[in-house]
Amino acid sequence: MTASRLLAELTNRAKTQAHSAPSVCPCGATTLADRPDATVVRHAHTVAKAHAPDTVRADLTPRLTTATHLPGILLPPLSPTPVTLHGRLVTFWPYGTPVDPENPDAAPWEDAATLLARLHRTPAPTPLPPMRGPAKAALAVARLRAAGSHAATPPVLRAWSTLPAWARAESPMPDAATLCHGDLHLGQLVRHPAPDGPWLLIDVDDLGLGVPAWDLARPAAWFACGLLPPDEWTRFLAAYRAAGGPAVPADGDPWPALDVPARALTVQTAARSIAKAVAADRALDEVEQALVDACDRMGSAPRDLA
């Protein structure tokens, strides 16, 4: 099936979900994302998402159930049961207002940290698979290796080799009980009800049990690479601690807990950046080069959380 057919039929499903009489719909649809791993369409106050082709129903369903049971933390789906559309699992969600990428000063760092702390303190309401953070990092490195030769690849692969086996998805994580988001960044928050309801976490594809520090790793890595201002990192970390988040000590140095996940996220992001640059036959931009430089500085093996 072509991508255009999937997009057209997903749009029609969103229209049907949004209106009891779709034939008289006046509002039209908006494509929010159209990538190989996810196609997302908005129609009025309904969002339809076609998940990655390799998504497993037995893993996605308990993740949807968890979101249904934690409505003050995760955006609940309109139904906890996915449907199938041309071999892709599809879910339906209420629309929420996303973070404005053009207004970084209004980024909800405190809200994100508080939601994470609440998520990490909440027992999973149903049995869940492992959080997919390490698996996604390993996939990014595999894609880097398949992308072909690039001058920035060796330092990234060297940094990857210094990580413990669990961070490379080669062995179980040392924490198999804490509920984690698995892919936290500011694009994973929306206000619901739109436009100015409370912030909630979205995207349950990587939700599961694992090391909670992984959910803090992307902002920690950005801070360590000089891409996130110190005051924003401090606000995020202080809010997480104030909300009782268990991923780091309540005070003192947080880096013994954050070191491995932050290094892994740096490698993952650098690997994805290089693979995209190779595919587009372009040079790395300033941010991408900063990530590669950070990988090059990872000369010693980090401490293993286990």
Q: Could you characterize the architecture of this molecule?
A:
Helix content is 41%, strand content 14%. A 5-stranded antiparallel β-sheet has the order 1-2-3-5-4, with helices on one face. A 3-stranded antiparallel β-sheet has the order 6-8-9, covered by helices on one side. The chain is globular, with a radius of gyration of 20 Å. The mean pLDDT is 92. The longest helix has 26 residues, at 255-280. Helix 4 packs parallel to helix 8. By secondary structure, it is an alpha+beta fold. The chain contains 9 helices and 10 strands.
What key phrases describe this protein's structure?
single chain, 306 residues, alpha+beta, five-stranded antiparallel β-sheet, three-stranded antiparallel β-sheet, 9 helices, 10 strands, globular
